[in-house]
Amino acid sequence: MSGLKPLARIHRPPRSAMQSGRANTHEWVLEYAPSEGVRLDPLTGWPGSGDTRNQLSLRFPTREAAVAYAQTRGISFEVETPPAPKPIQPKVYADNFRTNRGENWTH
């Protein structure tokens, strides 16, 4: 790097598509932005980069801890605030067999 401050993004990771609850979504993550572009390896043709910071992901229990870490190390950062969580609607199997269903059967 040529004297530039590394840029980082502090955010809360979204829950995975295979996850219905909110477990493991309470921590904050600091990820570095890439400092150089991806280039193709001339021998294999695989994409690669000399920047190893994109492999680094630091996890913190709170937003304040992540911000304090970045500030003490002179890392310029931007914080992405997560959207408000939607309430989880409990589903009842017996609702599939109600007589006053609003939608038609699909099977």
Number of helices: 1
Element pattern in H and E: EEEEEHE
Calculate the mean pLDDT score and round it. 84
- Which percent range describes the beta-strand content? 15-25%
User: Are there runs of 5+ residues with pLDDT below 50, and where?
Assistant: none
The rounded distance between the terminal residues' Cα atoms is 60 Å
CATH topology assignment of the domain at 1-14 and 23-36 and 49-83: Double Stranded RNA Binding Domain
- How many strands appear in the DSSP assignment? 6
**Rough outline:** elongated
Largest β-sheet summary: 4 strands, mixed
Main structural class: mainly beta
Which strands sit side by side, in order, in the main sheet? 5-2-1-6
Instruction: Give the radius of gyration.
Output: 22 Å
Q: What is the level 1 CATH name of the domain at 1-14 and 23-36 and 49-83? A: Alpha Beta
CATH superfamily of the domain at 1-14 and 23-36 and 49-83: atu1810 like domain
- As a percent range, the share of helical residues equals under 10%
**CATH architecture annotation name of the domain at 1-14 and 23-36 and 49-83:** 2-Layer Sandwich
